## 1
Amino acid sequence: MIRERFAPSPTGLLHLGHAYSAAVAWTSASARGGRFLLRIEDIDSERCRTEFEQAIYEDLRWLGINWLPPVVRQSDRLPAYALALQKLIDLGICYPCRCSRKDIRQSLSAPQENRLGESSLSYEVYPGICRNRSMRDKTDGDAVRLDLNKAFDCLGGREAVRKLKWLETGPNRDGEQRVDPEFLESIHGDIVLARKFIGTSYHLACVVDDDEQKITCVTRGMDLIDSTPVHRLLQELLRISPPVWHHHELVRDHNGRRLAKRDDARSIRRYREDGYSATEVFELAGLPLSKNFGESIGDA
Ligand code: GLU
C-alpha cells in the first residue's frame, strides 16, 4: 500500500508551492490506490501558530485535497522523539552542544534558502567545538548533536556507509542513490538531533514520523533534497527501513525565486479571497490535475 504525506510547518499561510507539493503527493497516492496523510510540523513553538494550522486544514479542503486521519502533530509526539534520541545516545554517537545559533550561524531547523537559492541548508558546518563533551554533562540548555564520524564507525565505517542506498524518483535525480559520507561531512557536519529546550530537530522528527505514519514515498520539494542522506543515515542508525523519495521542482515567482511564506500576496487564501477557483490556483502553480482529483482517498 502506497502511503504519501504532506508535512507543512504552520509558520505562515500556504502558498502555490504548497498546493503543488500536496497535489503531487495526493495524485501519486490516488493513482496507485494509496493513502495520503497529513502531518503538522510544529515543533518550533516560537514560529508556529494555531491559526496557521487551522488555515492549513481550511486551504487543503478548499483545494479539494483530503487526507486519511489522524493528522499527526509533532508537538504531540515529543515522547517518541525522546525515545529515538535515547537510542542514538545509547549508541555513544551523540554529544551535548552549548553553542548558540548566533555563535555558529548555523541553520538548525527546516527550510532556509541557501546559496543556490534551492536547498533548505545553510552550508555552514558546525566546527565541532563541543565534540569532546560527554552526554553525562548535558544541561537543559544544551542541544544534542550527532558525531558524524562516530555514527559512520557505528555503521561499520565509511565504506559501509557508502553502501547505504535509497531510491529517488524525482525529475532531477532519478534512480538509485547512495550516501556519500564526505558530502554529509562537508554540507551537514554534526547535525543537531535535539534543539535546546525542544528535545528534537527537523531531521529526527521527520525520520521518526515518516516511520510512524508508515510512509512509503516521501514527496517534497527540491529544496529538501540534500536532507535525504541525513535522513537515510538516521534511518540506518535507528533500524528504520527507508521509503522512496520524490523531490519535485519548486514553484517560482516571475523572478525565478522560490516562493516563501513571507510572500503573503501569493498565499492560497489570498487567491481564494480574490475569487480564484481551486483549479485556477493549480493552473497558476503549473500543475495539471487528474480527472479524479479531489475524490476521497481518506475520510477528511
Ligand atoms: N515541514 C517542512 C516544510 O514545511 C517539510 C518537511 C518535509 O516534507 O520533509 O517545508
## 2
Amino acid sequence: MGQTLTEQILADHLVEGELEPGEEIGIEIDQVLAQDTTGTMVWLQFEALELDEVQTELAAQYCDHQTYQFDFKNTDDHRFLRSAAGTFGAYFSRPGNGICHQVHKERFAEPGKTMLGADSHTPTPGGLGELAIGAGGLDISVAMGGGAYYLEMPEIVNVHLEGELPPWSTAKDVILELLRRLSVKGGVGKVFEYTGPGVETLTVPERTTITNMGTELGATTSIFPTDDHTRDFLRRLGREDAYIELGPAEDATYDEEQVIDLSEIEPLVACPSMPDNVVPVSEVAGTEVDQVIIGSCTNGAYEDILPAAKMLEGREINKTTEMIVAPGSKQASEMLARHGWTAELMAAGVNFSEATCGACIGIGHVPASDSVSVRTFNRNFEGRSGIEDDAVYLSSPEVAAAAAIAGELVDPRDLATDLGDLEAPGVELPDEYDGSTADIIPPEDPVDDDLVKGPNIGEVPLRGSLDNDLAGPVLLKMRDNITTDHIIPATSDILMYRSNIEKLSEFTLSRVDETFAERAMKSDGGVLVAGENYGQGSSREHAALCPMYLGVEAVLAQSFARIHRANLFNFGIVPFAVDESAYEAIEQGDDIEVVDDLADGIRSGQREFTIRVDDDWETTAVLNASEREREILAAGGKLAHTKQLAGDGSPAPADD
Ligand code: MIC
Ligand code: SF4
C-alpha cells in the first residue's frame, strides 16, 4: 500500500519507532525556528545542555512578538537573542523584520524538509510541502543540538478539496469551515493532508493560510502536496532550486476523510471568543465594528493585504471605524510601499504598523471597552486582545475590509451589490518578492560571538527527580478549553518577563484566579484540575515552567492539548487523565493523595494510579505515556533527563 505524503516525509526522517498511529516515533529535524518570546529559553536551555553549535541544517531566530520594545527588557531579550544566534550558529532576523512564520516562508521553507518551531503556528510552510511541527522550547533546544524529536504517530486526515472558490470566498473561509465542523479539539493527534482537484486552484499563500490556522484545530500539522504553483511561488521568491515534486501515492490510505467542495464555501467569521465559533458573516451582518486589523502570520502577507488595498482604493473607511494594517513581514511592507499601495491605504484612512505580532497578543491597538474588533488573525481567545470582555471576530481580509468600509459586519457580496463598483479582488501574486535582506544576519557573518545577558535574562529553573509521594491541595479547578493565554498571558506587561521565570510566575493563571500564584507559592506543592483540552493554543513552555516553579506537581484533566502535554512532561509535571465523573466530583481545596508509589509506578510502566480525595473517597487517574516520557517525568524533566542520557551534556543524536 502506498504512503501518504506525511508518511513519506516521516519515513525519510525516521530514527526510531514505526509509523503506526499512536506509536511513539523519533524523527530527525532539518530546520528549526524560534521567536523572541520562546527563543530566550530555547537558547538558555541550549546553553544549560552544554551545547555549543547548532547541528540542524538551518536554525533561524526571529524577533517578532516584542518588536515595539516598549521596555528595555524587550530590547535586552533581542540583544541576547542576537548574541545567541551569533554564538551558536543561527540566522538572526532583526526586530521589525517580520513574524517568524511569514519570514520563514519567504526565506527558508523547503518542500520535503522537517521543521520544529518554538511557536504553535510553525505548520505554516506545510502549504509548500514542508512537514513543520510546533513544540515547546526545550524540544527545540534538543533538536537543534542534533537530538531526535519524539511524537506520537498521528492519524492522517485526508482533506479532499473539490471545485473552486467563488468570488469573495477565500482560503481563510476554508479553514474556518473546518473549524466549524471539527472544533478546536477536533484535530488533536492528527495531521491534515490536503488532496484532490481543488488543491491546484489554490496558490501557495492561500495554502499557507490554511496550514497556519490548522493549529487552531489542535492538529499536529497540516500539509499540501507540491505542484506547479509551488515551483512558481519558489521562483518568485528567487528559490526555485528548493523545488521537489511531492505527493501521496495513488493508493495511499488515510485514517479519516473530510470532503470540502470549495465552490460551496461562503464568507465566514469566527465569533467571540473561540476560533471554532464560526458562522456565515451574513448571520451577524449589521454588527457595528469599531476596529479592523489586517495582519498576523495567517493573513499578513503582501498578497493578503493587496485585496484590502484594492477594495479601499479611491474610498474612505467608515468614520466610526479604525483600521490598521500590520504586515506580516518587512518585505511585505516594503513591497506595498514600492508598488504604491501603502499610499492608497493611508489615503483611505488606514494606519500602518511595523511588521509584528503586536495586536494579535494584545500589544498595541487594544480595542476600546465594549467594542467590536474584526481581525484577520487566527485566535480570538477571551482577553487576548489586551482587554477582558473583548469581542474579537476572525475573518478574511476581504470581510475585514468590507467591515471597515461599511462600519459594520457585512457579507462582502452584499456590499458589492450595494456599492455597485466593488469588484472581488481575487488573489494576485507579485512577479517577484524582491524585498531587501538587510534585516537577516547569516550565521557565517555574525555580529556577536559571545552571549550578552542583560539584567532581565534569568536562570533556567530545574526541579529534582520525582519521588514516590505526591500529595497536596487542589489549588485551582478549571473548565474545558483552558488556553495557554489563561495560564501565562502574553500581554505587554507580562511578556517582557519570559526570560525571568521567577517574575513571570507571579502572573500564572491570573486570568482565571488572581490569587493563584500567591496561594501556590505558599502551599507546599499541589495540583491543578481541568476539563477537556487543557493547555490549548500556544507552544509556550512557560505555561508548564511557571506552574513547576510554583510547586505544581500534577494536572488532573479530562484531556490535554498536544504541545502543552509534552511541555508538562518536559518540566516534570504529571499529566493525569481523569474521567468526567471524577472531574465533576473533585473540588477546589480538596486534598489529593496518590496512593501508589508515584516514581516507581511511573518508571515501571503503571498506567492507573489510585487517587485519594480528602481522605474520604478514591478515584483512578490514568498516565498515558511512552517509556521515554516516563523516564523524562521520573528524572524531573527533559533537561535533567537529556543530560543524564548523554553523560557528556549533549543530547542523544538523531541517528542513534
Ligand atoms: C501565540 O500565537 O499564542 C504565540 C504568542 O505566538 C505563541 C508563542 C508564545 O507564547 O510565545 C504560540 O503560538 O506558540
Ligand atoms: Fe504572532 Fe499571532 Fe502568529 Fe502567534 S498567532 S505568531 S502572536 S501573529
